[in-house]
Amino acid sequence: MAASSEAASKALRAGARAPLFALRDTHGQGVSLDRLLDAGPVILHFFRGAWCSFGERGLADLAGAYDQFKDLGASAMAIAPPSKPAAPVLPLPMPELIDENLKVSRAFGLAYELPLTLRARYEELGYQPPVTRTANSFLVPIPATYLIDHEGVVALAYVDVDYRNGFDVDSLVKALRALQARRLSVPRSPKPGTSSPR
């Protein structure tokens, strides 16, 4: 727990600019964060993969609120390392992005070295650690949920090393509503080359 807690203390927090990335979803389609932000706020839900039953439950909760996110002008993406589910899983309303070698998780500060004593158990559950240049490395993702505003700044960050804890979806919806209200209250600047109406 100490290793994961230390890693989580360095994870991306509210007010920071989110690192841009491009990943492929489970259907092989490319998805980039900058394109998503062009359309509005983005929710990124990092989970441990289909091998983790707790992560699957949290994902189901988030999927249940997907229509609310859309109504508030946001897109939502699930992000996980490659994994094979132990049992058939229901299709998600949101895209699931494959974080090869935990590239994006590491950019957000959401990966840590699993202690040697736990590695065999994780492998039994079906987890496959990413390939890195460090010998004997065994990186594991930290569950987290981020709300990123249309300017690419983290508006809400929930990072919890205890994978048994679920994220409060209602808090995410409230934060989205606040973002929407703030954006509507700011007058839009005229586009370059146009004049303001008199």
From TrEMBL:
Domain Thioredoxin: 12-181
Reactions catalysed, as given in the entry: a hydroperoxide + [thioredoxin]-dithiol = an alcohol + [thioredoxin]-disulfide + H2O
Keyword Disulfide bond: yes
Keyword Disulfide bond listed: yes
A matching Pfam family: AhpC-TSA
Function as written in the Swiss-Prot or TrEMBL entry: Thiol-specific peroxidase that catalyzes the reduction of hydrogen peroxide and organic hydroperoxides to water and alcohols, respectively. Plays a role in cell protection against oxidative stress by detoxifying peroxides and as sensor of hydrogen peroxide-mediated signaling events.
Protein's recorded name: thioredoxin-dependent peroxiredoxin
Species in which this protein is naturally found: Dyella halodurans
Biological classification of the source: Bacteria, Pseudomonadati, Pseudomonadota, Gammaproteobacteria, Lysobacterales
